[in-house]
Structures are given as C-alpha cells and as structure tokens.
Amino acid sequence: MIIKSMSRKTKSFSQLYHYMKSGSSLSSEYDVFRHNLYATQDKDIVREFLNNARFVKSRKNGNYLFHEVISITKSSKLTLAEEKQRLLDIIQVYVQKRCDRNLVAGYLHDEKDNNVHYHLMISSNEVDSPVNQRLTKFEFDKAKRETEKYVIATYPELEQDILISATSKQRKTHQSNKASEVKRRGGRLEKRENVYKTLNSIFAQSKSMQNFFARLAQNNIQMYNRGKAIGFITLEDGKKYRLKTLKLEAEFKEFETRISEPEHSQKEEDKKRGQAAEKNKQTQSSHTTSQTSSQRSVTELERRKAQAENIRKQSHNKDRDRGKEH
C-alpha cells in the first residue's frame, strides 16, 4: 500500500474535485467517499470547502487543502468489486486517524492495470476552525503506519507488501522480491512491446475503418471504449491495454484524420460540382434571357418600320390625290 500527500497553497477546490470525479468510473457504490459534508451536489460540495476555508486567516505560504492518494496493488484472489469494497473501508480508517474533523471528498480510480487507488481532497483546517490542522510529521507517519498495519491484519487476501511500517529486515526482503518481480515483468513488458508494434502497424496500414477492424481481428485484438478512454484487448489472454498507456494516442489520431480525409475530399468535390452546375444553370438562364430580349428588340424594330412605311404610304397617297384635284 502507498500513501502520497501533496499540499496546495491556493483554493483550487473546484479544479481538484472535478479532476477526481472525471477520472472515476463511478461503476459501484464504493467509488465515492465523503466525510463531514452535508452537500451532495458537485457545486455545493465545492462551495462547502470554500466556505470552510474562509474561516482560516490568510498567511504567506499557508496551505488551503491536501490532495492525497491511497493506492493498493491488485490482488489475484479478489474481483475488482471486492477490492473496491476493501479499499473504501481502508479509506474510512485512514481518514479517522489522519483528519477525522476535516472536510474530505474522494473518488476511486480503477483505470490502472496493477492497482486501484483513491484520490482525496482534504481541507487544511478542521470544520469551522480559524487555524489549520496541526499535524506533525510524526503524527502523519503514525497515521500511515497504523493504517497499513490494519490492512495487513484485516485483509491478508489483498496481498499487500509491508512498506510503510517495514523493519530494515523486511525492507531488504522486499527489495529482493522487487528484483525478482522486475525479472518476471520482463516477459510482461515484452508482451506490451509486441502489442505496441502490432497496433502501430495497424494504424499506419489501415485504409478505412472497415479495414482497421479487419486487421484487428486478424491479430486477435478487440477495441473497447470506456467513457472517453480507448483501449484494446488481446483475446488470447484477455489482457487490456489503454491507448494512453501504450503512448499511441498521436498515431491513432493521425489514423482517424487520414481515413476521414477521403470522405472530406469527396464532400468538397461534390460541393464544387454543385457550385459549377449552379453557375452553368445561371449562365444558361442569362443567355436565354438575353436571346429573348434580343428577339423582343427585333420584333419591336420591325413593328416600328411597318408603322413608318404605312405613314409614308398614306402621305404619298394624299399628295397624289391633291395633284389630281389641280
């Protein structure tokens, strides 16, 4: 089990709260933790932290909150739900020893392959207190040691190494075991490297989404989505690999952009063709209008000529009649 603590000297409650929540799958009743909080809605929880922080007199380099992470390695004997249930109980024990009178909000994250962990946001002061909690390094270490001892004694099925309260002999044993683990993980890392190379090749060679999924199937790989996260499963062993963990996000985005370009180009081509057809239609219409106008002009000219000719003939006839009279 590992416990990390990070202090913050700004009132960044909203940012940390939404970071914790957005990273949680929220797939079980064990994924959310609240302590000394009346609010249940996100904005109200953040407001409660802010209101409590106003009791503390501002001072240079003073802390406003703590961001702490409590992590346990995944066990081969338990399901994910069983691990979550035990971790929530561990969080309750830890908070009771570390900050029983403070405001605490937390969310469980389970996206890692080898551990589940809780993110906690802890107010620097106790509820309505004008001063920050006085927690010495000795007291903090004591809370961590007692929590670890509780875990080892209560949940042996979690298979946690003794790290925080380990004796020098236990530390040496752990270091020896860690060396063996590194050697054993060599095969695991080699497998991940193979998956990396296979997926990278598929991203580069696929010409369409249909072709992409066909190549995945040929390599016994299946794609999955978990919220906004994208991952891949090797069907032969059911092992999951997140795109982010494999560091292939840029390659996958490039692939998506590439296969969308032909469709975009086709749309642009269709648009250009439509514009050309419309322009041609307008030209033809203009030409037809021009012809009609010309025809009308010719007809009008002929009509006027005919009228002039009639007038000339009438005038000529009148002159001739006068000549006869004389």
Automatic annotation (TrEMBL):
Biased composition (Basic and acidic residues): 257-281, 299-326
Domain of life: Bacteria
Bias (Low complexity) ranges: 282-297
Protein's recorded name: Relaxase
UniProt source species: Thalassotalea euphylliae
Region (Disordered): 167-186, 257-326
